[in-house]
Each structure stands twice: as C-alpha cells, then as structure tokens.
Amino acid sequence: MNKFFLIGIGGISMSAIALILKNQGHIVEGSDMQESKTTKMLRESGINVYIGHDESHIKGDEIVIYTAAISKDNPELVKAKSMGLKVYERAEFLGMLMKAYKNVIAVAGTHGKTTTTSMIGYILKKALLNPTILVGAFVKQLGGNFCIGSNEYLVAEACEYVDSFLKFNPTIGVILNIENDHLDYFKDIDSIKESFRKFALKIPQNGFVVANLDDENVCSALKDLHQNVIYFSAKTPADFWADNITSCNGYYEFDIVSKDSKVLSHIKLNIPGFHNVYNSLAAFTVAYLLGIDTKIIKETICKFGGASRRLEKIGDLDGILLYDDYAHHPTEIQATISTLKKLANGRVIVIFQPHTFSRLKSLMPDFVKSLATADKVIVTDVYAAREKNVYGISSKDLYEKLKEAGIECEYISEFEKIAEFVLKIAQKGDIVATIGAGDINKCIELIFQKSPVKS
C-alpha cells in the first residue's frame, strides 16, 4: 500500500486515477483550486481533498501526481521536488498504470476521442468483459467518467497535446483524424503527424491500429508503417466501411461492410451528426477485431446516448431548444452547427467561447468560416485554461472579423447579460447552443434561471 497525493485532483482524468488508486487499496488525497461536484464525490469516496494549494499539504511520504495544467511554481509541486519525492505528470503515471492491463485500447485523434472511447467501453461492458474505462466526460450509460473493472481491458482517451500519449503503453491504438491544433506546442501539421506516427509505433506487433482511411493526414502519418493497420471509411471500400448511408433529421444509419464485401451489421445511430458515423465505425472495428458478437456491438452502438457536452440536448423552453457542445476546434464547430441546422425548425443561435488564446490566434480564419454557418453568433471572452495572453489577441478580434465577413453577431462578456440577451431574441423553433471547452455551459443554467418559462 502506497500513499498518493494528486495536485489538481478535481480534474476529470485525475479524479478517475484517484478512485482507481483508492480501489487498489492505496491511501489517496489531493488538492484543487475550487470546490466542485467532483471534489465532493471524492470526499464521499474516502479521499481527503484540500481546496487551495499549500506546501503544508505535502508531508514527505507521498508519491505525487500532477496535471499538465499545474504551474511549475505550484507550492505543492515545488515542495515535493525539494523533498526528493517521486513525482509524475498525469500522462506519465497513467502510462505506468497501463502496464498492469493485458489489453490497453487508446483512442487518439484531434476530434471524437471522448465519444469513441465511451462507445468502445460501453460495448465491452455490455459484452461482460468488465473493462476499466477512463473517459473525458460524464457518460450516463457508464454511470460517470470512469469504470473500474478487471485488469483484462483498459479503454482510455489518448491526447496528443505535449505528446502526452507517447507516455502511454497501448496494445491497440485508434486514430480518428489529424488536424492542426495545439500550435502552442506543435510547430506545424508535419510535427503533429510525426507525433501520431510515434504513437502508432508504440503498438506491439501482436496488437493493431484502427485508422481513418478518409483522413489524408492519418494516411500520411501511417505510411509504410510495419504495425498491423486496419482502416475504416465512410466514403470508399476499406477493411471496414459504411455503405448505404442515409439520414433523417441529422441522425444517420448505414451498413457496415467488410473488405470482402460482406455486410456485417446495420447501424442506426441514436446520436446525431455525420461525424458519429466515423466514431461508430472505429468503435465497431475495435470490438469486432476483439471477437465480440456483432449482435452485441450493433445493439450497444444503436442504444448509445452520447457523452455529456457532446451535442447534448439540455432542455426545452417553450419550443426553444437548448444544446451544449464541447467543440473548440473549427472543424468540430462546423460539424456541430451543421448537425444543429438539421435538428432546428428555426434559427441556430450559437454562444461561442474560444478555448485558449493560442488556438484562437493560429486558427482565426477557420473559426470565422465555421461560425459563419450559424444564423447568429454571440462571442464571449476567451477561456484561457493553462495560458496567459501573450498572443495579443482577444474575442473582440474574432467579433470584428465576423462582422467584417457580414455575419450577424454580438460580443458580450458577461454570462448574465448573454442569458438576458438570448431570452430577448430567441423564438419558438430556434436552437440556442453553447459551444466551447471552457465553462460556457454555465450560460444555459442562467438562461433557465432567468426564463419566465420553465422546461
């Protein structure tokens, strides 16, 4: 039995690690900047959580784990290092944890990681394989953002930021797509592709990589790879591909066909958006290659209800539908708005919160292009996350660019005023959607609070 201290324990991944360690019989405690549902849940699970960071929390007998968002001058981190304690960054420690599992399925890609990881985990659970699952959002059908199972299967998201996923030890890799992102760390698209290639090279010869044939960057990154690469496609025959694709109001159904032209299954998705054709193809491919019965795979995918903040319908205010989505990259935003357009009887009104200054600066023209597909856009201040604004950019710059492009938009800094404005302009049949990876979803709570009509 060891004692662990987690700096930033309230984070979605850190909290899951804390509970896994607790379940293994270790003593676990940690700290976070603010109280939350997660910190309260951890306390209820017997984990001591400090609010605020102080060097006095480190006693000298702990193994310390910290998130990449923690600054180098964090007093707990400084104290741990000065005492010569074992200190691990979250991804590094998660990579060590993975060594205890026989089959480690790591899901990578610029977009779709959470949904695909959730789908795969849910399939394995329904197949009674008792998986351990780590996912970056609350998933109702999993009962949370993690499941603690046996050491036979671990399913986890694999993020490329700061090459985190290169610290993992997967036996099965999934690469959904590769695009320009995290340009505060990566130099360009070639350096991003190289990182994904290194991720694929970590897969052992007795494992396999499931990859998107329709993504040019994925194919380029995996060219001449000696690993066993299995391709899926929604456009052309592949190892596994979607044929006879049809849609109704943004919901898709299709046949899954093998490379020998055999129809393996017919899928009717319970979550909207064409991007989920790809996510479900990847999940089906992994499960099929693991030998899971196709009936179980089909039933599970068709019943899958999605993860929180992934095109999530929050409520209905007298015919005004409210949605929340975690999209923070232009491609994701365009996919979200495109899907909402198919679901709406009226306008699609987007409340957008940019996530990080570096992303806004490096992808500004793409943000303008993707947001232009909405009927009206409300822009609010950048969610800085780990960054300080050394980039000389703000949400007002995005607002000005949108205005120049002739897009109907507003810049409103305060969430309370956003809620009041939305309630003035939204009409029956409209969809109001909060979009962003920060705390923009709080606007929906305020809209409900201020509305004279209750859902």
Automatic annotation (TrEMBL):
Reaction(s) the record says it catalyses: UDP-N-acetyl-alpha-D-muramate + L-alanine + ATP = UDP-N-acetyl-alpha-D-muramoyl-L-alanine + ADP + phosphate + H(+)
Documented EC number(s): 6.3.2.8
Sequence positions that bind ATP: 109-115
Domain of life (superkingdom): Bacteria
Domain Mur ligase central: from-to ranges: 107-287
Principal EC category: ligase
Subcellular location: Cytoplasm
InterPro entries according to UniProt: Mur-like_cat_sf, Mur_ligase_C, Mur_ligase_C_dom_sf, Mur_ligase_cen, Mur_ligase_N, MurCDEF_pg_biosynth, UDP-N-AcMur_Ala_ligase_MurC
GO molecular function: UDP-N-acetylmuramate-L-alanine ligase activity
Pathway(s) the chain acts in: Cell wall biogenesis; peptidoglycan biosynthesis
Major site of localization recorded for this protein: cytoplasm
Family under the similarity heading: Belongs to the MurCDEF family.
The name this protein goes by in its record: UDP-N-acetylmuramate--L-alanine ligase
Species this chain originates from: Caldicellulosiruptor naganoensis
Annotated gene: murC
